Amino acid sequence: MTELERHTYDVVVIGAGGAGLRAAIEAREQGKRTAIVCKSLFGKAHTVMAEGGCAAAMGNANSNDNWKTHYVDTMRGGKFLNNWRMAELHAQEAPDRVWELETYGALFDRTPDGKISQRNFGGHTYPRLAHVGDRTGLELIRTLQQKIVSLQQEDFEATGDYEANLKVYAECTVTELLKDGDAISGAFGYWRESGRFILFDAPAVILATGGVGKSFKVTSNSWEYTGDGHALAMRAGATLINMEFIQFHPTGMVWPPSVKGILVTESVRGDGGVLKNSEGKRFMFDYVPDVFRAQYAETEEEADRWYKDADNNRRPPELLPRDEVARAINSEVKAGRGTPHGGVFLDVSSRLPAEEITRRLPSMYHQFKELADVDITAEPMEVGPTCHYVMGGVEVEPDTAQSSVKGLYAAGEVAGGMHGSNRLGGNSLSDLLVFGRRAGAGAAMYVESLGENRPQIAEADIDAAAAEALAPFELEGGENPYTIHQELQQSMNDLVGIIRKADEIEQALARLVEFRGRIAKMTVEGHRQFNPGWHLALDLRNMLTVSECVAKAALLREESRGGHTRDDFPGMNADWRKLLLVCSLEGDGDGVTVVKKDQIPMREDLLELFERSELAKYLTEEELPV
Ligand code: FAD
């Protein structure tokens, strides 16, 4: 029998970023005993790193804005592959979620007349991102944590125990989900510091584990993004969708090498920054695709006027959706018009006064000064694409966030569908709040429906989870996980990166098979007390599964759309838009299967929000309204 500590909850939320915290608040407010488990320190999630802001059609900076325009922008940005019901709920509910944050204590930047300020971002028709300088994620997390503390204080008054109904287990990694028949029964994990095992008995688990960026070499993501939630869901029998769509953010730092990939927020362009090649040309005007031509300026003069008068001018092409800008930068560098360190120039210094730059973009100023010794108020930055976000994730039911497994929910970056083939900047923070809340409510409702009939955990399943976690200690003389991780990252970057081809993806798949063999034989040194090699060994299994999903789906989708660019299939294909690629684990749990599934056609009243001429760019002839 495995030695472990054991806790019983109604709902276990895995992840303490924006999605996890909002989900936990909801579940607790609906009367459910809730645990939050996170593998990093409490407060240190990706959400904290979010800079630019949270998209919500509040209409504060331009009163023409409304949820319908936000919906249209989101579908357009995702190239119509989005789950339209998720995009609808998101656009409708985001403003309420932002206002609600104010009731929790958030302090957003203000407009001159005292409303929540909203800034421009790529693909958004109107200034729409509620923000706090360029540190919005920090405020979001601070506020949600504050709300959690206030709920714990209420519980203390009622029960004498702060943690009676809502408790945080930080630096605790979940390695397996447990099931009773076809329903979730709990989660198994270990304390990172001691290596001791921990078990949560719970009929509902909400995955809020974020993304997968650590499978790629150049990424804006931190060590936590190893695709754990994606892989946990698959091992529990759930499905993933849209895994071929990886967002390469156009502007990561390219120099010095130690900081390559760190994000340069899109706010720099939203606030007036422009992209130039080594010849000093504002090259984005050459890269406006036909589907966006009507909405983007054709001259520098018109683009510059837009910053002051957005109603009477078209947007600068620097603010095209991220996939378009990333591909354009890639082409400029490949054509030999890049900067000395292989990027392009992002210049805000010649566009705004120094004081305004340091006021609006304080983090960027410090980031470049401290990490690259570049003063962005006086000289341009060098930037290039970096793996940033995964659009793919757990396939969920839009209204409740439930996966295909009973009792398993997913919200935030780990969930798929909402962003289609490409996410608009700012739409993640709002996604976390909207679907975090919905997942918390969905899980609470499910637990309520169970009454006394809760799924049970079998002792044999606990022993199996423990054996799987300890497997890397059992072998001697194998490779260490660090070498395999580096090679995996390099392969994904080079062969399934921003521009893809069938023969390269096939090479990647062959390498992944080889990695699977090597991972089965890897060894870790030492013992279970804080042992980063062991932690990486466990994370590597997840990264491998996720990488297989990305590569297999990328090979199957023979078109280019959003965050999936095939050199050998350069155009968008309307027949492919009707198809989702669904990943699951094969019978023995050892390899990924990808199958095609039909998209549910968009509801008629939502179709009517678009001009027929625009729909014709995305839909097949038969799908077009008469
Ligand atoms: P996270 O906030 O990453 O939280 C994941 C949590 O899961 C963490 O607590 C982690 O410890 C935990 N976890 C993971 N695996 C396990 C496990 N096995 N066991 C236990 N716990 C686990 N989006 C915007 O909308 N606007 C922006 O301005 C913006 N700027 C960004 C800037 C940067 C630098 C980056 C990297 C991203 C940015 N994004 C932005 C994207 C956005 O921040 C993320 O998509 C979002 O924060 C993800 O939130 P989440 O709650 O899904 O996951």
Describe this structure in words.
The active site is at 322 (proton acceptor). This is Fumarate reductase/succinate dehydrogenase flavoprotein subunit. Residues 485-588 form the Fumarate reductase/succinate dehydrogenase flavoprotein-like C-terminal domain. GO terms for molecular function: steroid dehydrogenase activity, acting on the CH-CH group of donors. The chain is α/β, with parallel strands linked by helices. Among the domains are: 248-386, Succinate dehydrogenase/fumarate reductase flavoprotein, catalytic domain (Flavocytochrome C3, Chain A, domain 1, Alpha-Beta Complex), CATH 3.90.700; 460-598, Up-down Bundle (Methane Monooxygenase Hydroxylase, Chain G, domain 1), CATH 1.20.58.100. The protein is built from 18 helices and 20 strands. The chain has helices spanning 18-29, 67-77, 84-104, 136-159, 228-235, 267-270, 300-306, 322-334, 354-360, 362-372, 427-450, 459-474, 481-495, 502-520, 532-556, 574-577, 604-607, 612-618; strands at residues 5-8, 11-14, 34-38, 54-55, 118-119, 129-130, 166-170, 172-180, 183-191, 197-201, 204-207, 240-241, 246-253, 274-276, 344-347, 381-390, 393-394, 408-410, 579-585, 592-598. Helix 13 runs parallel beside helix 15 (532-556). The protein starts with a strand and ends in an 8-residue tail after the last helix. 55% of the residues are buried.
Blueprint of the fold:
Blueprint: E1 5-8, E2 11-14, H1 18-29, E3 34-38, E4 54-55, H2 67-77, H3 84-104, E5 118-119, E6 129-130, H4 136-159, E7 166-170, E8 172-180, E9 183-191, E10 197-201, E11 204-207, H5 228-235, E12 240-241, E13 246-253, H6 267-270, E14 274-276, H7 300-306, H8 322-334, E15 344-347, H9 354-360, H10 362-372, E16 381-390, E17 393-394, E18 408-410, H11 427-450, H12 459-474, H13 481-495, H14 502-520, H15 532-556, H16 574-577, E19 579-585, E20 592-598, H17 604-607, H18 612-618
Parallel strand pairs: 1-10, 2-3, 2-11, 3-7, 11-18
Antiparallel strand pairs: 4-6, 5-6, 8-9, 9-10, 12-17, 12-19, 13-16, 14-15, 15-16, 19-20
Helix pairs in contact: 1-4, 1-11, 2-3, 3-11, 5-15, 9-10, 13-14, 13-15, 14-15
The site of flavin-adenine dinucleotide (FAD) has 42 residues, from helix 1, strand 3, helix 4, strand 8 and helix 11.
